[in-house]
Structure formats: C-alpha cells, structure tokens
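Input record (one chain):
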Amino acid sequence: MLDRFALYAPAVASVHGTVSLLVEHGTGPRLAETFAGLTVHHGPGAWIVLPPSYGVRWEMPPEPLRPLPHTLAIRPRLERVLTPACRSGELP
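The corresponding structure, as predicted from the sequence alone:
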C-alpha cells in the first residue's frame, strides 16, 4: 500500500495481517507517539521475524546500501494511509 505513495519503507508482512516497517535506528518510538494503536518494537530486546521464515514475506525488501528511512520522513505519508484506516475500524 505504501508503494502507491512512492515511499521507501522496507516492510515485512505476516499471514496474521500485521506489517512491520523497518526504520532508522532509534526513530521508531516517534511513530507510536503519532498513531494510537500502533505497536513499536525497539531497543536491544526487540525483534521481528524476517523472511524466509514461515508466515512472513517481504512487502518491500530493503535495498542494499540504501539507509533505512527516518520516521519523520515517512510520517506524513503514513498519516495518509493510517488515519483513514483507523477511522474505518480497520485499525484499533
């Protein structure tokens, strides 16, 4: 869905309907402050399952040598996607 907005945000999708965005180190908590119901995994104890593990696939794979995006760079486009989803009940 984010590819419609010409947004580079590597993401992993799971069979459970969740999507994990990979962002610049230390910037993830800023998204949790912006979007209610959004879970942010960060810090040394946080982890996500990456492909080719069972039940997950790359929605948008990271590009070699391209840095992960800062959340401030992607937040405006995420708002365009997540705000209507929250209003419609697709997200908590």
